[in-house]
Amino acid sequence: MVADDRISIHQVTLPPQCTTPQFVAALARHGLRCTSLWREKTREHGVAATAKLVADSGMRLSGYCFAGLVTSPEPGERAKALDDVRAALDEAAALGAPCLVFVAGGVDARDKDVRGARGRALDALGELVPHARAVGVKLALEPLHPMVCANRSVLSTVGLANDWCDALGADDAVGIAVDTYAVWWDPQLLESIARAGRRIISFHVSDWLADTQDLRLDRGMMGDGIIDLPALRHAVEEAGYDGYVEVEIFSQRNWWRREPDEVIATIKQRMRTSV
Amino acid sequence: MVADDRISIHQVTLPPQCTTPQFVAALARHGLRCTSLWREKTREHGVAATAKLVADSGMRLSGYCFAGLVTSPEPGERAKALDDVRAALDEAAALGAPCLVFVAGGVDARDKDVRGARGRALDALGELVPHARAVGVKLALEPLHPMVCANRSVLSTVGLANDWCDALGADDAVGIAVDTYAVWWDPQLLESIARAGRRIISFHVSDWLADTQDLRLDRGMMGDGIIDLPALRHAVEEAGYDGYVEVEIFSQRNWWRREPDEVIATIKQRMRTSV
Predict the structure, then answer these.
(1) What's the complex ipTM?
(2) C-alpha neighbours within 13 Å on the C-beta side of residue B2
(3) Contacts of A147 in chain B (CB under 8 A)
(4) Best residue of B69, B71, B110, B112 to probe chain A, by most A CBs closer than 10 Å
(5) pLDDT 10s digits, A96-136
(6) Cis bond before residue A250 (omega within 30° of 0)
(7) Fewest Cβ atoms closer than 10 Å to its Cβ: which of A168, A230, A262, B246?
């Protein structure tokens, strides 16, 4: 079971029509004190206004999500993408977030060699490290599920995230985000988590529904699917992680259609019984 | 480029309403001499009738697809599943297919530990080897995409298929089917293919569409997506594979809506330009 003071709820988990002030107020109403903010929503409300809202409410941030998409083989596009990540790092610093979730980017039809895209993502990270260090926000490399490898992220396993961390040699500025939904199926997951150790700076939970209907927006509430969440939580804790357990559920057909209060109450209950 | 005499077209690639006799006739009309038959369709037409049709038409089989789903933790269900695989091996032998595609089965909600499901699948394979050997049909272990790990197959990588082959020690009765659609994203793919070597007894092609809309039935025609198919074909050939290149496209929104002749003509053309 996860105690309330270790719960973080990612902003995307509540219905999209919920504004940032409404979202922060809903968390506070349920006695929760931590969140991870969604960049799109933050920009909608304004970075400075969101930073003030967070500070005034006494809310803590477990992360800021997301930036990246740096795999273009075209130099102009690549430079623009890197500038955007630097801007996101600045935003994360202004908000007081300890890390920025980094989503590598997909395969480019102009260069179908997925190893090429991986090489470009790693090169980009090397160029981004100095800025992350300067603003004091870590880049959290988040492996995404292989089903979004083509269009979202060529970083598909915790093992590969470890390889990238080894290559970068910048553990003060780069860490790993372990999202149970993205990595539960990996035959090498437990050894990769142990290898990651204290590089794990972010831990996300949701569940994989047996009848999943969408490649991105059909995540389940913890306990409603087939992921052995307690085992994965124990594995990251065994590796040294003692931070927040962040709930991140994109759910077009179910949770996004419910009232924020019902979603939050359900999360608090499931964190006790199913994580 | 793949010459016509190395092309095999899997029966599922043509529209579902196409009967087995119509399917075999369509291949023959285009000068193609090899196919992989779908078990459901074969039973619909009758195994003996299909065997006669195949023999009379001079068609060769690259495989028979599929059986498995042996991960239940309940002994009665498990025994029934194993008997069904033995029946499928018998059918494959009657048809003259060199191998039966083996799909492991998913995670069972009654035991969410995916390692448990993997252990049960491997145990089941050990029990099936004698029957495969007796009827002279190899079990082709096919890793499926991690997006169907929950409900179709806990065998998610070529690396894990290699581990299972090592554990079984039965290379005369068990091999590996490499399906480009299922494995292209794997950071360890090339080393796993090299390790598999002559264990690779089946090679499937289709393409991953950038805007994929379904977890199972939205595969693309070779050349329409982002998989580097020539590189993967070279990799399996480098490992020692010199068999058929089998086209397997489940495509509800596109190819299943077209005329069989158009689908086959397109495949022949794309095998020259995009594989």
Answers:
(1) 0.97
(2) 30
(3) 145-147, 212, 215
(4) B112
(5) 999 999 999 999 999 999 999 999 999 999 999 999 999 99
(6) no
(7) A262
Query: pLDDT at position A121, please?
Result: 98
Using CA atoms, how far apart are residues B171 and B169, in angstroms rounded to an integer? 6
- Count Cβ atoms within 10 A of the Cβ of residue B163 and give its class: 0-12 exposed, 13-18 middle, 19 or more buried: middle
Contacts with B56 (C-beta within 8 Å, 6 or more apart), sequence order: none
3-state secondary structure of A250: coil
Report residue A220 as tokens: 């389940």
Q: What is the pLDDT of residue A131?
A: 98
Q: Where are the alpha helices (DSSP H) in chain B?
A: 20-29, 39-45, 47-57, 75-95, 114-135, 158-168, 180-183, 189-196, 229-238, 260-273
| H helix or E strand, kind and range, residue A161 | helix A158-168
Each residue's pLDDT tens digit, B65-105 = 999 999 999 999 999 999 999 999 999 999 999 999 999 99
Q: How far is A112 from chain B (nearest CA, A)?
A: 5
Extents of the domains making up chain A: 4-273
Residues 6+ apart with CB under 8 A from B87: B67
pTM over 0.90: yes
CATH code of B4-273, in short, is: 3.20.20.150
Cβ atoms of residues B172 and B203 within 8 Å: no
